[in-house]
Backbone:
């Protein structure tokens, strides 16, 4: 099979490697689509993924073969590559480590669960969940970032009727604003400088889009919320100033949820917002219930994926290197799917 192998130095090689034979309790999945995740781009940008790794964890496809003892799936079943409930007693290399550091430890553990930039992937049978009826493969390939947005909203202080601002409308930001609306937000405002991503936010029905390169974010969000500031702000941008923008912009007693993964130091000026006694919450990854809720929102129509997809959003393995290089800087891309 063909697979993209990371060789270090910001380089992928497309290699022919053997198709895995699923071991006991595992399944083999023929990958239909694998989304390029922002965290993959970061590990590529900072060259922290171990050479020899096969990246890609936002994938879906069909079951191609079963390992011994697998009774929960049949060949031909359509599955999402994640979202399953761990069996009792299983270890989680992230949740079970009290001092887990994603920057130094996350990429080292990625090979245990990421291999989606390939024609086939072997995975533990319990990790997969079915693609729900009425959900497209394109949407199924975005279930992981959607689950991240669901978790962020569920961990936030959002209450029915609250005003919400989302700073950064990449894929997770675009999902967050939709989930916030589904969760009862009365007004949703986006802050985004990239025209394509701002256009996607508008297509999804936000009440306003603020361009931080043209206006002061704090002032604009205050003006759009009657002078008080949004009740809840989601920081989904990971730019140098956006966490401080979020904390300065939220109303007195409001809540900021940090969703993005900034790999470089961010600027904070606590004296500007500490007196308003705002709440800061962080959100990382997701649980099985977040995947289920996210896919249910897609099935019901409360979450849409079409505005995230440009006409050339689907690439083959041969386009992976160029796509990663392009995604390191703001571009016209919103979401890119790899079709191995």
Residues:
């Amino acid at each position: 099979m063909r697979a993209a192998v990371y060789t270090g130095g910001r380089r992928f090689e497309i290699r022919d490697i053997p198709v895995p034979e699923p071991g006991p309790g595992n399944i083999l999945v023929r990958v239909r689509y694998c989304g390029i995740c922002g965290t993959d781009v970061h590990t590529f940008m900072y060259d922290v993924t171990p050479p020899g790794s096969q990246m890609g964890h936002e994938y879906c496809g069909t079951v191609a073969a079963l390992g011994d003892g697998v009774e929960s799936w049949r060949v031909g079943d359509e599955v999402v590559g994640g979202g399953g409930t761990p069996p009792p007693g299983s270890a989680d290399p992230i949740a079970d480590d009290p001092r887990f550091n994603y920057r130094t430890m996350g990429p080292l553990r990625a090979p245990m669960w990421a291999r989606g930039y390939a024609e086939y992937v072997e995975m533990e049978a319990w990790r997969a969940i079915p693609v729900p009826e009425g959900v497209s493969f394109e949407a199924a390939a975005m279930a992981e970032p959607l689950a991240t947005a669901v978790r962020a909203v569920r961990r936030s202080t959002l209450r029915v009727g609250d005003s919400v601002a989302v700073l950064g409308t990449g894929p997770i930001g675009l999902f967050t604003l939709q989930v916030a609306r589904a969760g009862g937000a009365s007004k949703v405002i986006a802050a985004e400088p990239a025209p394509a991503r701002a256009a996607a936010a508008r297509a999804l029905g936000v009440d306003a889009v603020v361009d931080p390169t043209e206006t002061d974010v704090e002032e604009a969000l205050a003006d759009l919320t009657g002078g008080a500031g949004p009740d809840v702000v989601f920081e989904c941008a990971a730019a140098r100033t956006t966490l401080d923008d979020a904390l300065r912009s939220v109303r007195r007693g409001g809540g900021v949820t940090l969703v993005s993964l900034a790999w470089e130091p961010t600027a904070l000026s606590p004296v500007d917002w500490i007196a308003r006694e705002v709440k800061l919450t962080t959100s990382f990854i997701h649980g099985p219930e977040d995947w289920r809720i996210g896919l249910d929102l897609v099935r019901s129509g409360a979450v849409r994926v079409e505005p995230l997809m440009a006409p050339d959003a689907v690439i083959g393995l041969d386009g992976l290197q160029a796509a990663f290089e392009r995604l390191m800087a703001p571009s016209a891309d919103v979401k890119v799917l790899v079709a191995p």
Observations:
- The mean pLDDT is 93.
- The first helix runs from residue 38 to 45.
- The chain has ten helices and 15 strands.
